[in-house]
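ATP-grasp domain-containing protein
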Amino acid sequence: MKIGILSRNPKLYSTSRLVEAAEARGHEVHVIDTMRCYMNITSMKPEVHYKGENLTGFDAVIPRIGASVTFYGTAVLRQFEMMNVYPLNESVAISRSRDKLRALQLLSRKGIGLPVTGFAHRPDDVDDLIKMVGGAPLVIKLLEGTQGIGVVLAETKGAAESVIEAFMGLQANILVQEFIKEAGGADIRCFVVGGKVVAAMKRQGKEGEFRSNLHRGGSANLIRITPEERSTAVRAAQTMGLNVCGVDLLRSNHGPVVMEVNSSPGLGGIEAATGKDIAGLIIDFIEKNAKLGKTKTRGQG
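Predicted structure tokens:
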């Protein structure tokens, strides 16, 4: 097969592992810088060009699209879909998961466990918003934030009001969520491939840090998850429409709650913590499922 990997940096661990796993199985692999692609949007014959070359003959494409380039990255992926190239994750599913508010609303509609979450536009509504999520301490999140950036723990009602009003004053969209104290600064990353949890790790924030992101100095260890946690992760992935994703859960007093569904999860932490060949499992999934034109959206929506 001829496989394209949309990635801005071929030296990243996740990208290089996918290349290694695909080439080990005899596939031809091309790493394509998403932001260097440009498109001919024409009737009946859509094209993607890259450094002066028309990209043709691809059987599948693996999107590794960073959050900061979601808009352009999904436009490039959508163009490949319109060329009938099989996408590991579809453009619509990636856009859905990247919009934190939309993702939470979709998960909520499916009855999947979530932290109590509030969203408002006007500072006048802050007092009721804080009450709605159970009062302080609470977590305030920028909708556009990633890797723990733009996430604040407000210990008191006064601190929460100040932070919320400051963000609103900057015209920033924010979510306000209950603080799951019993999680103890730890979360669970479930790695889903093709509707199955193939690996799971517990990420623990460093001392004094409530965010468990590995980028922020957290540690990762192998963990055995419960059937309920496994089911929650699979349902969350299905709700987003993602074939491959990382589902981040917290263990709360009322069962597992989903914090985020990541459409481009890193492979480094999960492979190191579990010792599993996750990149190989992803390529196996592509081998079994990649067929020309096998995309639900084909550029719709």
